[in-house]
Amino acid sequence: MKRSLLWVTLGLVTASLGAHAQEVNKHARILAAPCAACHGTNGNSVGGTPVLAGADRAHFILQMKEFKSGARPATVMHQHARGYTDEEIEMLADFFAAQKRGQ
């Protein structure tokens, strides 16, 4: 009986973690949608702006925080970056790092 309860509990915890991951991924995709206007679908720019797909997570976060603080000059990125919390920047970093670069 105890063993069955353990497996049921483990299954419920695993299912809730999977649902949370999907929710986070959905939220990250929504946050990333405006980026497509300049950086292309899923971060695959066709030129003129950096490709974000497959970006190094730490580098992405650093760049966004520099835009946000004004330490890195930009035309519009500082305005975009200021609209994101640090947690959202990390979600964006995870999202873009997971995207495959176009060929």
TrEMBL record:
Which PROSITE patterns does the record match to this protein? CYTC (PS51007)
Record bears the keyword Methyltransferase: no
The protein's superkingdom reads Bacteria
Q: Which InterPro entries match?
A: Cyt_c-like_dom (IPR009056), Cyt_c-like_dom_sf (IPR036909), Cytochrome_c_Oxidase_Subunit (IPR050597)
**Swiss-Prot/TrEMBL keywords:** Electron transport, Heme, Iron, Metal-binding, Signal, Transport
Q: In the UniProt record, does the keyword Iron occur?
A: yes
Its signal peptide is: 1-21
Q: Which residues form the Cytochrome c domain?
A: 22-100
- The name on file for this protein is C-type cytochrome
